[in-house]
Specification:
The protein has 342 residues and is mostly helical. The chain has 18 helices and no strands. It has a single domain, classed as Up-down Bundle (Na+/H+ antiporter like fold), CATH 1.20.1530. Belongs to the KdgT transporter family.
């Protein structure tokens, strides 16, 4: 019997390690909703354990972030981080005034919410960014993602929603949302072996929490959410891509790194559920927002490479100095396992 290459097949799908398990969970929940109650025990826990798995995920993610970033990486990654999150905050304020916490109830935009927009805009697909930088950009720009990693998790989304004047979160909840990431960062920077050990678990956790999140989705609404997701994905690339391009140029880059950051990370699909667990005001928005953000992950995984390739052809320039910086001893680089993030 020949080997079945399941992993390769899943990875051919943009954001596959997040999207495929999420859809599998949604199919089971839609067709066989009683499954977790029938089997119970560990099987039932797989259907309801998204938050504990995510807590472990963010500890491992934090361990991969190196405090000892060079000034260039801090400047580049910090600029892209501030611009990306700043755009999400501006949109959060605008849509927070227009529609509040609840999702749109009917019509063409049914299911769209401020939560979905902010979650989709806030978090960059790290694996995609680093792969694109390796192919089209300056090698030293790959390391900028060590700063942009701070986008991961619900903390900045909570801050953004608070800035937008929507339902706020107690300070204990805000601290609790970022504490696992901080603990991981401390462990990883105190002990390189701990960084390597915990960092290897990052890609492993993704399909498990994705499956658990998928079990809370109703596939009967997936068509409309998918169309909205297409529009939201295009919006992420355009609305964040242009300011990121300009910011990259202003900080001495070619603009390629900025465009390469105009995507949505696969783990961003987990944020709406975490937000809803922290504040019931977002409970109605969480399920449709999860579907929308998951669709946005796929759309941006396709559009961002195309936009980056176009930008590289027209504005990018790989210099001998860049090539030398890549091969220089001690040159900064991102942890290899992060390239697997969806």
């Amino acid at each position: 019997m020949g080997e079945v290459r399941i992993k390769r097949a899943i990875e051919r799908v943009p954001g596959g390690m997040m999207v495929v398990p999420l859809l599998v969970g949604a199919v089971i929940a839609t067709l066989f909703p009683a499954t977790p109650k029938v089997f119970g025990s560990f099987t039932g826990a797989l259907f309801t354990g998204a938050l504990p798995i995510l807590a472990v995920f963010y500890v491992c993610m934090g361990a991969s972030i190196d405090f000892r970033a060079t000034p260039y990486i801090v400047k580049k990654g910090g600029t892209l981080l501030v611009v990306k999150v700043g755009i999400a905050m501006i949109l959060g304020v605008i849509f927070g005034r227009l529609i509040g916490e609840a999702p749109v109830a009917g019509g063409l935009f049914a299911g769209l919410s401020t939560l979905a927009i902010v979650a989709a805009m806030n978090d960059t697909n790290g694996g995609l960014y680093m792969a694109l930088m390796g192919q089209y950009g300056r090698p030293r720009d790959v390391g900028a993602y060590t700063i942009m990693c701070l986008e991961s998790g619900p903390f900045l989304t909570m801050v953004t929603l608070g800035v937008a004047g929507l339902s706020a979160f107690p300070w204990q909840t805000m601290v609790g949302s970022i504490l696992p990431l901080l603990v991981g960062m401390i462990l990883g920077n105190l002990d390189r072996e701990m960084r390597d050990f915990l960092g290897r678990a990052v890609p492993v956790m993704i399909p498990f929490f994705a499956f658990a999140l998928g079990t809370g989705l109703d596939l009967t609404k997936i068509w409309q959410a998918g169309l909205l997701g297409l529009g939201l994905g295009v919006a992420v690339v355009v609305v964040t891509g242009i300011p990121l391009f300009l910011a990259d140029r202003l900080t001495g880059g070619t603009g390629v790194a900025g465009v390469a950051a105009s995507s949505t990370a696969g783990n961003a699909a987990a944020v709406p559920a975490i937000i809803a667990a922290a504040n019931p005001a977002y409970a109605d928005a969480a399920a449709p927002a999860t579907v929308l953000v998951a669709a946005t992950v796929v759309v941006t995984a396709i559009l961002t490479p195309l936009a980056t390739a176009w930008t590289a052809r027209h504005f990018g320039e790989r210099t001998e100095e860049d090539a030398a910086s890549e091969s220089a001893p001690g040159a900064p680089h991102a942890a290899p396992h992060l390239a697997k993030q969806a």
